[in-house]
Amino acid sequence: MLPGRGPNGRAARLSRILGTRTAWTAAGDGEFFCPGCGGDRNYQRLTGQRRFTLLGLPVLPRGETGPVVECAACRRHFGTDVLDHPTTTRFSAMLRDAVHTVALAVLAAGGAGSRTALESAVLAVRAAGFDDCTEEQLAALVEALEADTGRITGEPCGAGLAIELHEALDPLAPHLATVGRESILLQGARIALADGPYTPAERDVLATVGAALTICSDDVTRVLAAAARTPS
């Protein structure tokens, strides 16, 4: 059989004559975490119009396609659900705010008047990214939190404080592995234990933290027990 005369050759010739082409139109842009590059990149959100081509020229519309997200660096296309994942910068900010909110909530449960609890909270908050955090700042914020939520130190976790915790933790939880979610709960537990055993109010706050992080109650109990057995 002569070259180009078989089925593959006919298919190749046909593809050069007839085909499809997509014309992309930019519909938005921004920054996202690119799965292809493995880091934060700029992107364009594209919508496409598919057309049949004859000899490379578009002739008939074939319908719309997309939308897709195109990375400005690697030029790969992804589904728009990739935009649901936070950028590295945004994720770091969410994690920092989560630790800060948990620390304030635990202190509001009874540790704001304890120097050791405040010291433990400051260490946790600084490690999360608030480098200039001080004991005085946290104590003042606890007072402001109690005034805002109408809560009194030592009371169980009320609706106002629960809302604050869920607002900080709900958006973060889906993007953390189990070990990451339990690590945040563990940091709260260590703050609570800094001045002695858990109080009922501290346990209640930590249970709310666990629920907001989608940790089941049995695992919350396990993490709190492990923290109590571990010397600080």
From TrEMBL:
Source species, domain of life: Bacteria
Xref: SUPFAM superfamilies: TerB-like
Pfam family, one: TerB
Domain Co-chaperone DjlA N-terminal: 121-222
Family matches, as InterPro entries: DjlA_N, TerB-like
Protein name listed in UniProt: TerB family tellurite resistance protein
Source organism of the structure: Streptomyces olindensis
